Amino acid sequence: MAPRAVALAVAVLSLGCASPRGGSGDAASASDRVDPVVLPPGEAPTPGDLRVAAIFPTMGRYAVSGMQSLNGARLAVDELNRAGGIGGRRVDLREWRTGSYFVDAQRAAVLAAEDGALALVGSNSSELSAAVAAEAQGRGLVQVSNVSTAQDLTWDPQTGRNRSFVFRVCSSDVVMGALLADFALQKLGARRAAVLYEVGRAYSMKLARSFIDRYREASGRSPAEFFYLALETDFRPQLHLIADYRPDVLFVPGSFSDASLIAAQATALGLRVTLLGGDAWSSPLLFRRGAPPGEAYFAELCAPAPGFDRRYQAVFGEETQGCRAILAHDAVEVVAAGLRALGPLDDQALGAGLAETRRRLRDAVAEVRTVGASGPIRFDAHGDRRQGVALSAVETGPDGRPVALARGWLGER
Amino acid sequence: VRRLARALRDLSLRGKVTLTLAAVFVVSVATLLLMLVPILAEQRQRLVDQDRRMLTTLRRNYERYFIYDLLQDNRESLALHLAELAQQEGVLWARVDANGLDVGATADGEAIRRLLGEEAEPHLPGAVLLVDGEGRAELVGAGGKPLLTDRRVRLEELRPAATGGQQGDEFRETSWGGVKALELATTLQAAGDSYGRLHVLYSLALLERSETLTRSLFYGGVALTFVLVLLLLNLLLSRIVLAPVRRVHDAMSLAATGDLRVRLPVPSRDEVGSMAESFNRMVGELETSRREVEGYSRNLEAMVEARTAELRESQASLLALKNHLATVIADVGTGVFSLDGDGRIEAFNERAGEILGLPPAEAHGRRLEDALGDPGTARLVEVVATVRDGRAARREAQVLCRLPRGRRTLSVVASVLLGEGRRPIGTVVVCEDLTQILASQRLEAWKEAVERVIHEIKNPLTPVGLAADTLKTAWARDRRRFGELFPSAIDMIQGAVRDLKTLIGEFSRFSRIPKMRPERQDANALVLEVLSPYSQGPPPGIQVRKELAPDVPEVEADADQLKRVLFNVINNALEAMGETGGELRLRTRAEEGGVVILVEDDGPGVDDVERIFEPHYTTKVKGTGLGLAIARQIVEEHGGRILAESRPGRGTCVQIHLPAAPPRPVAGDPRGKAPGAPSPGG
Fold first, then answer.
1. Chain B contact set for A20 (CB, 8 A)
2. Distance between CA B241 and CA B247 in Å, rounded?
3. Is the confidence at residue B196, as pLDDT, over 80?
4. Span B340-360, mean pLDDT?
5. For every residue of B542-583, which 3-state class applies, written as one string?
6. Interface test with A, best of B106, B193, B195 (most A CBs within 10 A)
7. Which chain B residue has its CA at the smallest distance from A66's CA?
8. Chain A residues close to B89, C-beta within 8 Å
9. H/E/C letters for each residue in B36-58?
10. Of B229, B222, B171, B170, nearest to B39 (Cα)?
């Protein structure tokens, strides 16, 4: 990271403007130059154990969410081993803690594959998961992501690419957008809808696109589109335009921080609109800096699971945030279900026959039908979990703080 | 100060010029600097402003990340973003302080070393030190990879003076860990809401370095320019002014040593050119003059040489002459002596000694009168004194002196000896003892006289004899005839006797000149007395005229003898004019030391005028030829001279010079009875 920063700094100095690292960017050359940040597992693997690699960012910007994901996975493995393991073999969660940069995750995937993992769990951001997915698909070992919603992680309808080894225990953002559009039209009765999305961020754009497409398809009306650039902090210009449009519903497929800023600024501007959001809104910090200008709903990748939350709290001493932990737990569960489906594994299957075992595991996972902490799990033909999204409404809690309350389920359950 | 001033004054022209140039340049540069210092300051300010803009840009770009990180309460992300900001070139320290989150970061190796010590060293460079509000520090590598954790650092060092919660970017210059820094303190804001404070320390080392470099370059450039310009100006001045001046100077030095062939090129029409021209002209003129002078000098040398040679020659010849003269004078048969201006004897030859009876050894250095001593030499002394006192330039005289050898007649010629500028410096006296000569002359004269007497007597005796014979014959033969012849014969005989008587009388007068009895006489009175018979009844065809000067001095003379002299001379003149007639003029005139009596006639003149004073010289049919000889004798015995001038057809002039009588003594002085009366005849 340091040389890269220096290179950037040089570019900054020469151009006279700073361009901090974005999510995407100079990926082509970066892998050559950036030393990936990967903390390998603390102990050497125990022969005979079923090695499942967890690749999560515990450093950098995704450190908090990565840590929750990792904890979820730990919880699952702990439960498995306490229940006697799988087929008499202990499950060894090989923890590859990475930085928040895609090369870190990629490097971790390579290392994990070489470490003899049967499957990979992670990562929890689409960009990191995509980097891991490329290695998992290439090396022929199962990857199960917990919360990566980017549609093209598992398959890309545009190019037709299908990563057969890659699964996720959540629905894709395309599904989410369509379900939210239906919700806006059917439940909220929206006549006029607007979308304010972040240009250049795949998650936001794809979610917006699916929402718009579905909305148009269902209503015959096109929502008004507004956009902002990454890291925008002042949305007032867009909000003025939106106010002029006077929508019933404003869909903000951005992060909870974007949504918090937009909500606060919209309220300040006197805008009266119902806010809709995606799973990225899922944060206790949502609307912390100001109440939304009206009702606010967002999709969650999981329904509330108080039992899991309590367990988590008991083990890690902190509250769960969103669905990362529980879905990471279920990602491990999926792998475990696959492994169980394979039957007892001899040492040969874990040694020389590892590649074959991995391939068999993929087939097993694709056919998994199980019930995780977040509910029943099965995959569609692309490896996406077949299910809808949970709906949360944001309301003001007894302490005056905004609080997300579950409001049922959208789509398939 | 004075010494300095003198040193400056004694500086070479080039030194002065250089010094002046340097002074001008230094003043210019100083002025330039004075003008440029604010420009440099402004330049610095501009650079600082640039850094401010840079910081502002950095702030603007990172602000969003920080705000999002704060919104998400994401310490990790915040730390990473801070680390990234801290790793930007020039950023020393970046810190975000919000409610609940307070993270500072530095990627500055020096600062990390300072804060963490040696253990940080292996991780440098590239590591970022993250410090929270309590001073808990953690060294992370790329991507937030922890390198050193759970360290504590002294917070004060990391806390730049945070300013209050003002809005907008606040800048101030500060220093951090010995490094000059620009501090940015700002509030993280989004749409008017504040999210926290951001502090960034930005190193001004680069700026300082560039400023130092600029300044060094600038001063170096100025110094270099200074030196170059000075050199160039010096060179130019050397070429344009100093070199020509030096050439002129060298040429002048060369000229001063005497080489006047030197010429200067005239490269331009400026002052130097005109100086060179002037110099060339001057040297040219000098050279011409010198050549002339040398010519003159050579000429002069030649002349001097010639003159010197001549002089040497003439000196030699003079010496020879002198020797010759000395020899001649010494050996000459004539007495020569000289007196100096004081009348003391200088030269005195042997012969003079013999004549004057005075040994030369005794004569030297004495006054003439003292040396001679005897009053009998008074005439000689007197004659010499006439010349010595300047009364006459030359004096010739025959003087009778009583000398140890007896009475001697001396011929004396005294002349003024003229020195430089024709000033009299002495007297030369030439004397000759005439006594012997005179004696022999007299003897000769006597013999001649006897012959003449015999001749004169014999001449009348022939007709007497003839007449006697005729009478005797007639008597004997023819008495009638006798009677006829007798009276004429008797007359002839009587005439012859008469002539004889006259002749005898003449001779007896010549032989017996009476003894001179000099008395004071008035020369004019004498002349008038002698002229009186002629004045009353002059001979036919003769006019007498007299011009007598009234102021003639008295002379001391024997009146009878002097009258006889005058009678002889006048008669001679009358006889000369006898046939043609004419005018007889008598004049007196005072002259230096005496009087001159001039007797002039209109007669036919005499060819051999010098001889007329010799005895028996005559041009006349009648006469003995003794008259003028007698006259001469008498005049000379009076200490005078008698001279004659004559030109044939124009008459004769006889001059009788007589010395003036000595001044009359107040009391009676028996000067008249002075000795020296000449003896008669000889």
1. 61-62, 65, 81, 84
2. 10
3. yes
4. 84
5. EEEEEEECCCCCCEEECHHHHHHHHHHHHHHHHHHCCCCCEE
6. B193
7. B76
8. 6, 9-10, 12-13
9. HHHHHHHHHHHHHHHHHHHHHHH
10. B222
How many A×B Cβ pairs under 8 Å?
129
Separation CA B211–CA B43 (nearest Å) = 9
pLDDT of B609 strictly over 80: no
Peptide bond into B125 cis (omega under 30): yes
Contact A393, A286 (CB under 8 A): no
Instruction: List, for residues A46-55, the tens digit of each pLDDT value.
Output: 888 999 999 9
CB–CB contact A63 B73 (8 Å): no
CA pair distance A2, B141, nearest whole angstrom: 7
Q: Which residues 92-151 of chain B have a CB within 8 Å of chain A?
A: 107, 125-127, 141-146
| Separation of alpha carbons A273 and A257, rounded Å | 18
Chain A hits for B61, Cβ within 8 Å:
17-20
pLDDT at B26: 83
* Side-chain-facing half-sphere of B408: CA atoms under 13 Å: 19
Cis link prior to A123 (omega < 30° from 0)?
yes
Name residue B44's amino acid.
R
Q: Where are the alpha helices (DSSP H) in B609-660?
A: 627-637
Taking the C-alpha atoms of residue B230 and residue B227, their distance in angstroms, rounded to an integer, is 5
Residue type, A374: S
3-state secondary structure of A248: coil
Q: pTM for this structure? A: 0.55
In contact, A288 and A401? CB cutoff 8 Å: yes
Better-scored residue on pLDDT, A217 or B281: A217
Q: Is A11 on the interface with B (CB under 8 A)?
A: no
Q: Are strands B170-176 and B179-190 parallel, antiparallel or unpaired?
A: antiparallel
Chain A contact for B191 (CB, 8 A cutoff): yes
Chain B residues lying within 8 Å of A9, measured CB to CB: 87-89
Cβ atoms within 10 Å, residue B647: 12
In DSSP terms, B647 is beta-bridged to B651
Interface of A with B in 196-215 (CB under 8 A): none
Asked if A9 reaches chain B (Cβ–Cβ under 8 Å), the answer is yes
> Which distant-in-sequence residues (6+ apart) come within 8 Å of A191 by Cβ?
A221, A248
Cα-flanking dihedrals φ and ψ of residue B145, to 5°? -65, 120
Q: Which residues pair with B295 in a beta bridge?
A: none
Confidence of residue A136 (pLDDT cuts 50, 70, 90): very high
The tokens 């210059």 sit on which residue? Answer: B173
When the pLDDT of each residue in chain B is averaged and rounded to a whole number, the result is 80
pLDDT tens digit sequence for B564-588:
888 888 888 888 887 778 888 889 9
Q: At what angle do helices A102-114 and A126-139 cross, to 10 degrees?
A: 30
CA terminus-to-terminus distance, chain B: 111
**Measured between alpha carbons, how far is B52 from B49 in angstroms, rounded to an integer?**
5
B84 with A256: Cβ contact below 8 A: no
Integer Cα distance of B387 and B385 in angstroms? 5
The DSSP 8-state label assigned to residue B143 in this structure reads: G
Q: How far is CA A413 from CA A326, A390, B398, in A?
A: 17, 9, 202
Query: Which residue from A171, A96, A174 is spatially nearest to A135, judged by alpha carbons?
Result: A96
Tell if the CB–CB gap between A285 and B72 is shorter than 8 Å. yes
pLDDT class of A14 with cuts at 50, 70, 90:
very low
pLDDT reported for residue A329: 95
Q: For chain A, what is the radius of gyration of the CA atoms?
A: 22
A10·B89 Cβ contact <8 A: yes
User: Among the residues of A126-201, which ranges form H helices?
Assistant: 126-139, 173-182
β-strand partners of B86: none
Nearest CB to A59; choose among B58, B65, B143: B143
Structure-token pair, residue A181:
């559009």
